[in-house]
Design goal:
five-stranded mixed sheet; 13 strands; five-stranded parallel sheet; Methyltransferase, Cobalt-precorrin-4 Transmethylase, Domain 2; 253 residues; 7 helices; elongated; Cobalt-precorrin-4 Transmethylase, domain 1; alpha/beta; homodimer; 27% helix
Chain lengths: 253, 253
């Protein structure tokens, strides 16, 4: 007997930014797996069970959820933002590939959500209005040299760059190094947005320049967006400036 | 007297994937600007007025909306997906920068949404589970050589690539050329996802390989996702395969 596994994106953290589809999926499940703060975003009914795990135990969590779904239950794995962007969907797929055949028979439904860079961009203007990339700055799962190679490639080709997982207690120097690397390629005037907890009560959106960007402005709840050389800042009297990347671009040499 | 301008992301097209925040914003506006099919996604009340324009008249539409907001009305500019990704938010910011000073005094609120690549990825597995980029294949606003440069940079550095605006009647050959370009860099086995109308009744998700990818499978409602050399396909008996990009990566030479 094979059950159902939802992988649910709860959005950036503001309940008004969670889709009805995500809410409906959560209403169907009996068992919830995830990092505590993401599970806290759902109001569970009596009889719906929480299985909390640490944020870094993705593969073990995926396996436990798949096991329970394979036994016939309706299970939800819960992510912040979108589950497909540096979150649980890839971990579940990895577990399915490596796991027993019955895991491949589970009815798997992934429910997308608003990912952090979109919520931050909306607060700042339209920094992702032109070609862009998303890079996780965590070197737990890939070598630091590969991250540097990607930063250089993206900046040199004119992509706007959204950095996920920019900093943590265990990874204190990576964001500073990333800024150093980008300063060798991009003008010091390039806009940098520190978008913390976008859409939540403790939101803080800070616009700086690459020359002056201070890694201490970021924490684990921050998504950092670094403009391209075309990204512009429009000052507005009495309001936050608008940061945007024009839709058009000229060839550069 | 200065009014309010919302820029609303309606998500991929399935009403269950539109956020409550977007719905609430739409309820407040009196005048709606946008491409007809996007406006059709909103159920407007009596007295709420539609101002339909062609899909390619973004800047004129932004100016008309700003003009009306500056006169004191509550206006909504409506995008599909997320308004910050190849959509109306950048056009409005451009218009604000070039326009009269009173446009800078308008209370501008951008409401994010689920963008197409996230909806397509959710249907296919987790192809965006590792570093990725988004490129608009439209060469109306940038030279084709710049697009080729970005495709090469992204593929060479191991980014998964999401292509927006892959094809149209006026741009019939670009997607085929993009595949040709990527075949010189990536293995022929690299997974390619054609994600059409994800989440809508006429959804069609097609998984192919770069060697066999046929541009004729894409239309204007399609987002194309091209994997990295690490992206994997997990076959499932009786179900669509899962396509995912592992969270971890090794350095490549």
């Amino acid at each position: 007997m094979s059950g159902k596994l939802f992988i649910i994106g709860t959005g950036p953290g503001n309940p008004r930014q969670m889709t009805p589809e995500a809410r409906d999926a959560a209403a169907q499940a009996t068992d919830f797996f995830g990092y505590g703060p993401y599970l806290d975003r759902l109001e569970l009914a009596e009889g719906q069970r929480r299985h909390v795990s640490d944020n870094r135990e993705e593969l073990a969590r995926a396996g436990a959820a798949l096991d329970m779904a394979a036994s016939g239950r309706t299970v939800a794995v819960v992510s912040g933002g979108d589950p497909g962007v540096f979150a649980m969907a890839a971990a579940v797929c990895e577990a399915v590939e490596a796991g027993p055949p019955e895991w491949r028979a589970i009815d798997l439904e992934i429910v997308p959500g608003v990912t952090a860079m979109l919520a931050v961009a909306a607060r700042a203007g339209a920094p992702l209005g032109h070609d862009f990339c998303a890079i996780s700055l965590s070197d737990n799962l890939k070598p630091w040299e590969l991250i540097v190679k990607r930063l250089e490639a993206a900046a040199s080709a004119g992509f706007v760059i959204a950095l996920y997982n920019p900093i943590s207690r265990a990874r204190p120097w990576q964001l500073g190094k990333a800024f150093e690397c980008l300063r060798t390629i991009l003008p010091g005037t390039t806009p940098v947005i520190f978008g913390r907890a976008a859409g939540r009560p403790d939101e803080r959106i800070d616009v700086s320049s690459l020359a002056e960007a201070d890694p201490a402005k970021a924490d684990m709840a921050t998504c950092v967006i670094i403009g391209s050389p075309d990204t512009r800042i429009v000052e507005r009297p009495g309001q936050q400036p608008l940061v945007y990347s024009p839709r058009f671009a000229e060839a550069r040499t």
